[in-house]
Amino acid sequence: MIAPRRWWPDLLALVAFVALTVALAAGHLLAFDQRVADWAFAHQPDAVYWPARVLNYLGQGGQVLTPISLILTGLLFWRTRSVRALLPFIAAFFLTYVTIGPAKIFFDRAAPRFTGPEKTVLFNPHADGIYAMSYPSGHMGNVLVWYTVIALLLTALLRRPLSRAEWLALRVAPVVIVFCTTVYLGFHWVTDSVAGVLLGLVLARIIARIHFDAIPLPSGLGRWSAPAFAPPPSASPARP
Asked: Is 82 in contact with 224 (CB distance < 8 Å)?
């Protein structure tokens, strides 16, 4: 994986997240969110609804993405015998835990499936239960962050860069699928999902920039701190 060199996309994503949040807090885009949700709820035949439910699991952190990442981490640790294999998982868990989680609690927005009052607004005192804390979308944050970790681990395990088809399958297709199914199923408003994409993009680019083999570790680890993500000798050097 080639680390991002430019920071302007990160800054642009953060500015867009702030602008979107301010707009929602001022009451803008709420009617748009409601219209999209109303249309989705009115067009959910079983032949579409249940495939969408299954595909939506591509963005489930605790049930799908975290276990897959743990399995790949374990395989890389077994191969390299290096604690550095654990670092991408730790970084992803920490970054999502201290950003997306607190943001969802702070903004306290109900999801479209919530049946209480004022469900489109931020800072909703009535939002509670499983359809609370909807903004920003954790589905979209997960899909950006954890598939970056999965791609990084697979690159190390396969000892080669991902092909274009593999990159699209891991970094693009899940984002599109989870975005559409999350909104269609009424788990999140459109703006929730956009906000999740913006924050997830920033976090994913941070993880992609980290040179895990260069992070200082205690000298007492000895061989357990050996490189885990170094390319094989035959691999082409990464672009600067």
From this structure: yes
Using alpha carbons, select from 116, 107, 126 the residue that is nearest to residue 25. Answer: 107
How big is the chain by its Cα radius of gyration, in Å? 20
Question: Amino acid letter at 230?
Answer: A
pLDDT band at 1 (very low <50, low <70, confident <90, very high): low
Question: What pTM was estimated for this model as a whole?
Answer: 0.88
Domain ranges of the chain: 8-213
In CATH, the number for domain 8-213 is 1.20.144
Angle at which helices 87-98 and 190-209 cross, to 10°: 140
Q: What tens digit of pLDDT does each residue of 168-184 get? A: 898 899 999 999 999 99
Distance CA(228)–CA(81), nearest Å, equals 8
